[in-house]
Amino acid sequence: MTAPFTRAVEATLFASEEPLTPDDIAAHAGPGDVRTALAELAEHYGGRGVELVERGGRWHFQTAGDLAHLLRRTREEPRRLSRAATETLAIIAYHEPVSRAEIEAIRGVQTAKGTLDVLMEAGWVRPAGRREAPGRPLLYATTQAFLGHFGLQSRRDLPGIDDLRAAGLLDPVDVSLGQLQLESGGEEG
Amino acid sequence: MTAPFTRAVEATLFASEEPLTPDDIAAHAGPGDVRTALAELAEHYGGRGVELVERGGRWHFQTAGDLAHLLRRTREEPRRLSRAATETLAIIAYHEPVSRAEIEAIRGVQTAKGTLDVLMEAGWVRPAGRREAPGRPLLYATTQAFLGHFGLQSRRDLPGIDDLRAAGLLDPVDVSLGQLQLESGGEEG
Amino acid sequence: MAAELPLRAEDELQLSLGAWEGPLDLLLNLARAQKVDLAQISILQLVEQYLEYLTGARAFKLEIAADYLVMAAWLAYLKSCLLLPKDPQQDPSPEELAARLQLRLQRLDAMREAGARLMARDRLGRDVFARGAPEGLRLVRKAAWQATAFDLYAAYGTVRARSAPVVHMVARRAVLTLEEAIERVSALVGARLEWRRLESFLPVTQDPQFRRSALASSFAAALELARKGHVEVQQDGPFAPIMLRARAANMP
């Protein structure tokens, strides 16, 4: 028999249209130990067709990944990102917060107007303040929805991020040096 | 361990935007005994926060009926009653049953529609029939909850009402050249 | 920039600059063609390949964008520095410049790889799915109205005070109006021909405020009556008593 509070948490998560924080859950499920209930549910659903996952501190149910081949055929492919947008998204995710100039220094080309727009429209990228440096450049970072869409519990789950950091490939980019040496006025293809 | 086919049926039902017939399910979940899988799932979800139900030959998951109240939660936020609302409430308490026109005559200003709504939403004021007079104006009176909130046994406990009356401060107030006068008959009701 | 050209089958890389996202992208693809770890690539060989590629493109009369030429010039400079005897004065050294180029290629390659890995994940809405028809949660905010008993009584007092203001006005202000003063002074002075002090015309009162008001309005009344020719006013000097009497000609 499932504990009444665990049932309440299960029902709340099932009914929700969005991933929920433990606080959101508590607001609906009433008094109880949300963390324990979540752990219990995650274990209960382990190996089933539906599983309970955490994405950036928010919880939701989703179908098991290994069943993608069954479910995918009915759905239209979500937006296909251009190579430029894919690279830009990766750079933001692995370096955030990062300025447009830094993105361009890594990619070696200017960022076309639409590239960041597409990522923001998809809800995966957001402006994240300005850097306190000359010119106060606008910074970009990823969103909650980014973690949710790509199935990441947090940015620490980004594939290979630890290796890249250890190899020094995520060190801050020297924007001025990059432009001095590899001046590129070229457009994006 | 859940059977692979049962998992597939579970995921298909979960992801579907509408209830599915066994044929619909078979089209997604691949070859297998849909009936058996549905029976297995229905039993598995029995007593949980989510249940598998059949309606007219179509199957879908839904939140357990006894937990439906969790989906709509009200949160109370303390808010201070405005001055206009407090005055209006006081006038109703001392003069009930009283029409809106009479309240306005006593206050000397028009009463916004929202003011009475707020008092009724708070549960302190109720409509109390109509006056048998031209226009049959709606009358307002206080409620049991009003007495409870303000710690009164009855309206007789309103302090100073006798002194005020003796001082002539509770005399009926003229409404448009004295045609309408406050009734005091129901005052102690 | 894309060009439809008859290319020889043995060309390993298409001579279409439009296929590349700028010089760095072209360099990275050439480096990958070396088929070794990016950390191990030969920069000299890479420079050779790049310059050759651009020469080839030019041979086909392709328009070559400025940034490709700038890169070519820089790479040609780097190549000459790497081949010439070392100049210890040079800062940064050619090896340092080559290392930086290598790092840039590695960075871009890493991000390209990371992007591909991200896109290949189980993505919500493509590979994994949230519930198709969630009932939805509603959180209704309800105001818990607050008022104390004191608020209630104070409000009622305010209302009553506001609706009965006249009574207070008269009781509070002790004033002798000009009209009253004219009437009073006129009556008291009557037909008396002897001088009397202005103060003797004032009503008897214990209220200093009312006395001040009465003095002021009686003085104004005296001036008004004098203007009309009913009384005479006399003062011997500044701050001396003001004297008043009926005017003889006025006698009936």
TrEMBL record, chains A, B:
Q: Which InterPro entries match?
A: ScpB_csome_segregation (IPR005234), WH-like_DNA-bd_sf (IPR036388), WH_DNA-bd_sf (IPR036390)
Q: Provide the alphabetized UniProt keywords.
A: Cell cycle, Cell division, Chromosome partition, Cytoplasm
Q: Name one Pfam family in it.
A: SMC_ScpB
Q: What is this protein called?
A: SMC-Scp complex subunit ScpB
List the gene name. scpB
UniProtKB/TrEMBL annotation, chain C:
InterPro entries (alphabetical): ScpA
Pfam families reported for this sequence: SMC_ScpA (PF02616)
By what name is this protein known?
Segregation and condensation protein A
What is the species listed in this Swiss-Prot or TrEMBL entry?
A: Sphingomonas arvum
